[in-house]
Amino acid sequence: MTNHWIDIRNSDYILAMGSNPVKNHPISYKWITKAVENGGTLISVDPCFTATSNKAQIYAPLRSGTDIAFLGGMIKYILDNDLYFKEYVRDYTNAAFLVDPGFKLPGDGDGVFSGLEGIKTEEGYVDAKYDKTTWAYQKDEKGIIKKDKTFKDPHCVYQLLKKHYSRYTPEKVSDITGTPPDKLLAVYSAYAKSGAPDKSGTVLYAMGWTQHTVGVQNIRAMSIIQLLLGNMGMPGGGVNAMRGESNVQGSTDHGLLFHILPGYLKTPRAAQQTFADYNAAYTPKSNDPLSANWWSNYPKYSASILRAFYGPKLSLDESYRYLPKLDTGPDYSWLTVFDQMYQDKFKGFFAWGQNPACSGANSNKTRHAMGKLEWLVNVNLFDNETASFWKGPDMDPAKIKTEVFLLPCAASFEKEGSISNSGRWMQWRYKAASPPGQALPDGDIVNELMSRVKTLYQTQKGVFPDPILKLSWDYGPKNAAGQVKHIEPHLVAREINGYFLEDTTIKDKVYKRGTLVPNFTMLSDTGATSSGNWLYCGSYNEEGNMAERRQKDDPSGIGLYANWAWSWPLNRRILYNRAAVDVNGKPWAPRKRVIEWQAETWKGDVPDGGWPPLAAAGKGRYPFIMQVEGHGSLFGPGMADGPFPEHYEPFESPLGANPLSPQFINPVLVRFDRISPSKNVNRRATNNSGFPIVCTTYRVTEHWQTGVMTRWQPWLAEMEPGLFVEISTELAELKNIRNGEKIMVHSARGSLEAIAMVTVRWQPFTVAGKTVHQVGMPYHYGWSTTAGRKYGAKDKKPEVFTFGDSANLITPNIGDPNTMIPESKAFMVDIVKKA
Amino acid sequence: MERMTLVIDVAKCTGCRSCQVACKNWNQLKGEQTENRGSHENPPDLSANTWNRVVFVESRDANGKIDMTFISDRCRHCEDPPCLEIGQSVPGAVVQDDSGAVIFGKKTREMDFDDLTSNCPYDIPRKNEATGRISKCTMCNDRVSNGLQPACVKACPSGALQFGPRQEMLRFASGRIEALGGDANLYPGEEHNVLWVLPESSRKYPLAQAPTGWKNYRVA
Hints:
Chain A is α/β, with parallel strands linked by helices. Chain A contains 23 helices and 29 strands. In chain A, 23% of the residues lie in helices and 15% in strands.
């Protein structure tokens, strides 16, 4: 979230799209309620009439996978009706930037941007990649981007944006999305009102936007709207991802994904052989003196993380040499990893705190891939479909050689530590109970593993032992052999914050060696400081653990609660808040002030940098400090699939062609159904009469992720006891299916048995002149808690059995080209009454 | 202790069922083996192990307008409870405490179930076939008498459940009815300590209607 949960109450217009906050983020609804009681409007856009739609003042349906068309129409509406926030767009976004005259839009040709190189097929381009040369900005002799603040130049971003979305007429959008035109207009006209300077609108999204082959561009489309309406940085504004787990934010901040280290630093690639190469590759340069270009500090953060990893005794160059480096080229995402595993390229696999047998798209493939391993370690609270994959449906235990270890771990309540919520608040949690039996906190399992690996390297050597042997590991009391006995969470938190490694004088103040660094502006690129994650620098200082703070006062009056826990970065509660004020530092919305320039200083929230406001000649800075050029990106050349979002059909579509252009699906997808030797299990069925129904997946309030923690819980299991498919009364009639009957759901990849839930909440769409039906199902189930499985004599049985298996048995393993998140939200199925 | 009242503000309920789980958690009631019957609503009925159950109602009107309503069904804790009257046959089986909570004790095992349930206009009492004990919502009198809110109220995230001194709650309910306007009304009537603020006429919901002269109500 750019903002935070409580801040939703400050919103005038709340768009819930790609999410169902009432069901899936129930506490958010508390703050939505407060906003609505204050006169706010809740807008719900969803393929299904959800519990959120039920509470909304405006509801519009759309076919899954057509959000860009819907939002593109809104961009056109805002521009056509001149409803954008003029000063904000002119001064704070890149609307005035001039783009290379060679740049071409999809509407200029065959539905793709200039620079695409790939194979042309009847569906348009496939296996393609963009050469982004023409996506660059025009620059003057000083290397500063040329701008036209009158927006008259045909190559300025504003004109390109207007031209690009001129194709997204209400008729065309309705033809693609299936949304009736009057509903489109209702949403557009309501939300566009948030463009008034003193109003703000927020978007609450979740996996309904991300899990698409155009997932990132869905969010880009909304970011463009938020910039046009001046909602970024505003209380009650922002682009707000409601995370699917309480600590997904924290784990992402700390480098969970393959391409990032903690603090969103980049994972080194093999081409960057030296620390200097690495820093040069990721430290952006701007020639504009008014751009803060915050990432120019990259070498300070990378040096500090190396110090946290390897301590002050090694040189930074040597420490960098020890970091693992990815091959330049391939990605190491989930989908690729499991494709490689399926091809027998892995020996072993740690499935840590996860249940890939149910959580991975195309789970049949995932389950069979694990059967090709020599060993599998699953760290989890309970037995689950991954640890027991070898005795699951369609498995022959006699033929599976994988040795499986299930390590029991402590639940969140059984250990101390921090979690970071969606609003970036780092909150400390205390241990409530001891873990049962042999279960250990994850940190202690890692510690034990590390200790043994280290011993192996010490006794048996190895090819490259130093990265392991020299790693800093000062996380708790040590035994006689020098091994850490158990992990002390406070020491980890302190290392994440970082220390001064030598006596340092900053602004006449001396910081002694060994003291905690007060904040990341004091981190050094010479190796004089450590910090395990620069974003969290300041979270644990000489005054104590900021995440433990529990003061309930709110002098801001807008719910910042600055003394409750701690928010990254620097305890800033609303990101980009310098955009919430005019160039003189006065709030656009005085009644909900986040910051204000008064008497030569900023009042309110921690500002996005302490410089004076933009109007202060030469001293001010542009508000979007994380962008190289300091401006909000209407034009986003960093994307793999285009600088503006463009509608492409989902990987599996009910249509034979894209109603908008000759390019059928996103041209730069990594197509496992084409490139992989395992393509026979990566099947696709698009525009296929055998699979004519659009299907999406979602969650229910009562279950959590793959259900490992909830399907064993009798009070939850009894409420949602099994897999269901929600279908419209119209489709039920067509298929001769009655409510509550057992049906089969088939996709190109698998089949599932489920209960038909016939409901008026789903309705058919009229798309490209034809009737398109859509169904939806939850993904939480798995065979291990069903009455039907074979239980051994010693197996624990659930008190209340659930029914059904994971919806991921039928989802496609195709990913967004920027993130590789799978398209679980729009794919094709058929349903039939069970014989 | 003064009279306490629980108000269920139906317009604010989101159907999250936190109240249903919180009830089972506090009162340590077992889960039931259920099946999906083509609805999210489960368990299918109140039982000795389910004292509070959220009923799901969905509809689409002639104009295509869809509505979902969630009703928490549970004991109404009548001011003048017929079950208390019939319960006098076994002293201590049914009691009403100062707060107004009507509580079924262990001695309900000695009562005739049909006799008890046929005196309830709202079909609330349920018998545990194994122990013979008859049970229902206690209004969490063990919590309330210790200064806590009922478990369901504590768990409610949307403000749909409110609990407090009777007069305060009656004022709250009438304020909500005024704010909702239209056909909004109080169900089943002021002579209860669990009150529903219904946005529309009570006949639109699957709720038992208390007949006129209900105090002398007997199921035929």
